């Protein structure tokens, strides 16, 4: 996950540095991120990720926000592939690995670039 974060950071920095200072002042945040996305698509058409999500009820203690209980941790694995015209559509599957009671729960999603086409998502809940 750290390598994926570093790679994304390198792509963002390279994309922004490729834009000259004078033209960067005329771009919106959305336009800059579209350039980053185009740069990323040019280098790879797929991604494999492992992630860990941690949630907890929180409270304020000594003017700091802290977990008020033991955090709930989920480990997920995700694979995505770009396809379609200019690789702007994405198919992605995510599967829960941990905790054992939730292992096998998955989500399949198709995201389309066309604004007139709805994205599709399916959730699989194991028996």
Low-pLDDT sequence parts: none
Oligomer category: single chain
- The portion of residues forming beta strands comes to 35-45%
Mean pLDDT equals: 81
In DSSP terms (H or I, runs of 4 or more residues), the helix count works out at: 3
Number of domains: 2
The helix/strand class is alpha+beta
Q: What is the N-to-C order of secondary-structure elements (H for helix, E for strand)?
A: HHHEEEEEEE
Largest sheet: 5 strands, antiparallel
Q: Gist?
A:
Helix content is 28%, strand content 40%.
Any overview of this molecule?
This protein is an alpha+beta fold and 127 residues long. It has 2 domains: 1-44; 45-127, no CATH class. It contains 3 helices and 7 strands; from the N terminus they run H-H-H-E-E-E-E-E-E-E. A 5-stranded antiparallel β-sheet has the order 1-4-5-6-7, with no helix packed on it. Strands 2-3 form a two-stranded antiparallel ribbon. Strand 6 and strand 7 form a beta hairpin. Helix 1 (2-18) packs across helix 3 (29-43). The protein is extended and about 45 Å long. The two termini are 30 Å apart. The mean pLDDT is 81.
What are its keywords?
single chain; 127 residues; five-stranded antiparallel sheet
How is the topology of this model organized?
Blueprint lengths: L1 H17 L2 H4 L4 H15 L2 E10 L2 E4 L2 E4 L4 E12 L5 E10 L7 E6 L8 E5 L3
Antiparallel strand pairs: 1-4, 2-3, 4-5, 5-6, 6-7
């Amino acid at each position: 996950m750290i390598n994926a974060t570093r790679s994304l950071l390198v792509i963002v920095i390279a994309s922004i540095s490729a834009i000259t200072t004078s033209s960067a002042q005329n771009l919106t945040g959305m336009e800059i991120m579209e350039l980053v996305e185009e740069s990323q698509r040019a280098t790879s058409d797929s991604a494999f990720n492992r992630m860990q999500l941690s949630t907890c009820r929180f409270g304020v203690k000594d003017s700091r926000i802290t977990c008020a209980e033991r955090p709930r941790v989920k480990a997920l694995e995700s694979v995505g592939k770009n396809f379609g015209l200019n690789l702007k559509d994405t198919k992605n599957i995510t599967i829960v690995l941990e905790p054992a009671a939730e292992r096998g729960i998955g989500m399949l999603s198709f995201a389309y670039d066309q604004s007139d086409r709805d994205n599709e998502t399916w959730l699989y809940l194991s028996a």
